[in-house]
Amino acid sequence: MLIQRLILSRAAKAWRNAPGAAVPTVCVGNITVGGTGKTPHTELILRLLQESDRWGGASLAVLSSGYKRKSKGFQIVRRDSTAAFAGDEPLQIARKFPAVTVAVDKNRVEGCAKLVAGADSPAATASAPCPAADLIVLDDAFQYKRLHASLNIVLVNYRRPIFEDRLLPFGRLRDLPSRIKDADAVIVTKCPSVLEDGEREEWRQRLRLPEDMPLWFTTVEYCEPVPVFPDQADTRYNYSKTAVLFSGIADDTPLRAHVSDTYKIVEVLKFPDHHAFSKGDVGQIATAVRKHPTAALLTTEKDAVRVLDRDVPPEIRERLFAVPVRAAFLDSADQEALQQRLEKL
To answer: What is the pLDDT of residue 149?
Structure first.
């Protein structure tokens, strides 16, 4: 454990001394392994940037490592890419934000340089254009020691606070808890819709944050289910009273709680996080829907893009709906504070 802490401390020192990119960058990171909501918060930041006076007409880009993708090196993610090629989360973002360039590259320094180069980038083609980026949002780069972002936002899960956790492999911490002080702002995510009196200050004290560090709070908003196969969907299933639910996410508890408010969940199929669905998995899902012929079939957005990599039978296509999620600030003043930070980049 002592050696692990020494390695993490040296990596943090290297990160503090690392150079920035040629354009402003916003890092959305965390201290733990998964489960903090990086993708919904990346999307939240993109919406704020697109609505802002300064960045609304700018060329925006997202750079991710493309976790579990099969492609290599720097790649532009197109809306018709596969999850196997791009990774599920980059593909989800590319489909929801067509005006934003989404790219994947484990080497964040080279990835940023190629996004800044734009059309001159080797990966840019007529089918995968790459306009020169004016600002880059970095998905999960807080531990990348060769690049220091212009604005570093660290996420902490309300239900799994880092001050009650331990370093891997005994807990879920991927980094030293003290590294949170390297952030420019901290967001406590997945909060209840209302916080108790004094709870905000208690979080600041337990996270040991200085008084001048921004500490913001967000919650999860679930949107109306949308068909995964719009041209083949039978929207009557959306009004069913029962549902089969499947997902491959770190924690499906909030999703199940939300779905159960509208549907009686008759079967749950749970897969590992970022699971690449196999032909057998699709068969298992098909068996479940045949067992419950009037039930809607629900999943998450990122699970939906991974299912698209497989040959999906008609009984799934007609009733498969994704439940979109959005991160939303509990306090409009917090959102305004982040908006001001983005405007000043």
So the answer is: 98
Beta bridge partners of 104: 64, 75
Of 256, 260, 268, 246, nearest to 312 (Cα)? Answer: 246
Element (H, E) at 337: helix 332-343
Going by C-alpha positions, the residue among 116, 118, 120, 114 that lies closest to residue 130 is 118
Residue 102 has a pLDDT of 97
Domains and their CATH numbers in the chain: 2-219+327-343 (3.40.50), 226-323 (3.40.50)
Sites in the chain below the pLDDT cut of 50? none
The answer for 73, left when phi > 0, alpha when psi is -120 to 50, beta otherwise, is left
Q: What is the pLDDT of residue 251?
A: 85
What's the rounded Cα separation, in Å, for the pair 336 and 318?
41
Specify whether the backbone of 24 is left (phi greater than 0), alpha (psi in -120 to 50) or beta.
beta
Full DSSP string of 183-234:
-SEEEEES--SSPPTTHHHHHHHHHT--TTS-EEEEEEEEPPPEESSTTT--
